Amino acid sequence: MSPARQARLGRPAVEETHTNSTGSTSRRVWQLAWPTILSNLLLTTIQFSHIKILSGLGTSSVAAVTTGHRVFFLVQAMMMGLSVATTAIVARNWGAGNRPGAEMATWTSMALCVALAALLTIPLLIFPHGVAASFGLDAETTHRAGEFIFWYAIFCVFLSINMILSTALRATGDVITPLWFLFASVVLNVLLAYWLTYGSFGLPRMGIAGTALGGGLAAGITAVLFTLRWWRGKFTLGAVKRWHIDPTITRQIIQIGTPAIIEQGFIQFAMLAFFLILGQYGTEAYAAYGIGISVVSFSLVVAFGFGIATATLVGQQLGAGDPKSAMAAGWRGLRMAIAAMVFFSVLLAIYAEELAGFMIEDPEAVRLTVIFIYLIALSQPVMAIEITLAAALRGAGDTRFPLVNTIIGMIAGRLIPAVIFVVLDMSIYWMFATTLFDFGIKAVLIVHRYRAGHWLYLKLSTQR
Predict the structure, then answer these.
(1) Most-buried pick from 185, 248, 287, 374 (CB within 10 A)?
(2) Where are the domains of the chain?
(3) Which residues contact 234 (CB under 8 A, 6 or more apart)?
(4) pTM value?
């Protein structure tokens, strides 16, 4: 019997013969998901807070910080490719009872991610205004975006350290420690960003540069404290403490991480292209999209939280040699993600006008933001499907299909329609609706792949 056939038969068997474990699976998903959801919500508040802080300086500053964050989403997304590999390998080793292997995987991932962050930072430090100019905004907005990019880029290496340590700990099931460090980082981020933007407590008034510097300093301080605790053996995973990375694990990280890096890079470059197209509709529409994404992401991160929890459980169950439980964990995580995202998206839709008015005062930007929130709220269930099941595949080490899926969805569902809408001079509302087209295509394809079950039989080394 083929692996695909086994998997297809395995799903109903899980649901019928494992009914007694459904409750425990749900509890385990929730135990892993809720701190991750809170962590993602905290991360979301950074862009949200930066936009709010700078809204007092005008629409141009809001558009500039939206641009700056879009650039760093690209950098962070590339690093997230390595974190995907970290989750798969650490969780697989942890599920197999191989703590030394999990620690070496963490150490190796850390070294690779720091190197990648340093490499990606170089052009942002040398050509910050050139990068900002690629968005086609007006001169004032471009200059401000360049300032933000330069100051934030200085601290990218610290962001990579925080990311890998948090990812590795979550892969072992420790989701609380990363949450506490992230909470401290976000509080510092908001306070320092505000103080340096407006010159509070005797600090210089730096405007948008102060927002970036404050956020970067917060990440740096947190990374130092996080690393010290890890180095002193205070976590479930210890530091290897020697100048050595395992060649086998390095190859695995590259093999698993490369498609994920390409996928994340493609997403961000595609979104950069989308923002360039969107810029044709004016600064108000551009700012509204940035604000809308920031606001709606509070519900979107719920799916990412369940996705990370599902990826962890899938990796651990496969490491323990239990593919049926791995399959069941994915379906259970998906159902919980859909329910949670529908709930939060309804809340966001109800309070769309209040949220938009809180974020910015420009009447036209507020109107467009409200419409965007309504449209993207309709996309939430299909977003939950794509995000959760793609995370389950990545947790098993299958990062190639999510890459192909993303390329198809982005090109066929977002970029091509966006170009058509601009050429035909169609309403900005159609541009907002591309999110539904994009994720709808990806959801259909990812469900088919998950059901096929080929991912259950991928082999990863768990040697000590």
Answers:
(1) 287
(2) 3-457
(3) none
(4) 0.76
